[in-house]
């Protein structure tokens, strides 16, 4: 009977200690109550600016790549025409 | 190479002006109440995704002409559209996660829409790689890949309606707030115009390359016989 009472008291004491520590445990897990209106943690502007910036840069890079390709083809065509002209001047067959 | 026509110059000028004018319309459009300012990404994200679909279909059309009729012009159309599919797919796959990070809290979700869109982009990259490094059979192999990509397009589009995903559904555009429509359709017209201009230039470049290759063969023949 004496042992039973001792266990009962220990149990009550443990529950009481846990109840007293509960708020402290919640704080330890970093859950905090919001005071006032909810504040946005991530600003939207950098995301929107990055999205639009990427599209413009990607399109511009493609235009530059196309322009370089066109330039190369033009140069090769001019070179080829020069060779054809030289051949024709020497009286050779024309393609 | 042929010189550019007046229609091309007008389209390129309109596109350049549009890049100054359309962002102002987008900034002036009302804010979406749940997502706020980050929803502005929508105005270019959706047109870019649509251009990815359009490019893939054009690429598949050209590939069919090349595979079944041996059309060289079809192959050139496919090559030009294939590159644009990768370009606009990249724009879609970069702007989407930027929007998602703010709206959903994560950069990426392996849901049906995002995964199928990534798959489409990878197929189109494989298309370009097969063309470039596939050897003599590369063009036919890539044409077959373009057909698989075209089959993936309806799957990407309908995935948000078929499966439960975090991505907005296809009803977003038809049910758009009337005050947001001018900004959206202007952005759409601008991206379509940019696509058309780039496609025309790329197609001319491809035709010029083919002409150059043919001329080179002629010159070699001429030098051998001469």
Secondary structure elements and pairings:
The complex is a heterodimer of chains A (95) and B (226).
Chain A: H1 2-28, H2 45-89
Chain B: H1 6-28, H2 42-69, H3 72-103, H4 112-133, H5 138-162, H6 181-225
Explain what this protein looks like in three dimensions.
- The complex is a heterodimer of chains A (95) and B (226).
- Chain A folds into 2 domains: 1-30; 58-95.
- Chain A has 2 helices and no strands.
- Chain A has helices at residues 2-28, 45-89.
- The longest helix of chain A has 45 residues, at 45-89.
- Chain A is rod-shaped.
- Chain B is built from 6 helices and no strands.
- Chain B has helices at residues 6-28, 42-69, 72-103, 112-133, 138-162, 181-225.
- The radius of gyration of chain B is 20 Å and the shape is globular.
- Classes of the chains: A mainly alpha (95), B mainly alpha (226).
- Chain A binds chain B through residues 40, 42, 44-45, 47-48, 50-52, 54-56, 58-59, 62-63, 66, 69-70, 73-74, 76-77, 80, 83-84, 87, 92-95, and chain B through 1, 19, 23, 36-38, 40-41, 44-45, 48, 87, 90-91, 94-95, 98-99, 101-102, 194, 198, 201-202, 204-205, 208-209, 211-212, 215-216, 218-219, 221-223, 225-226.
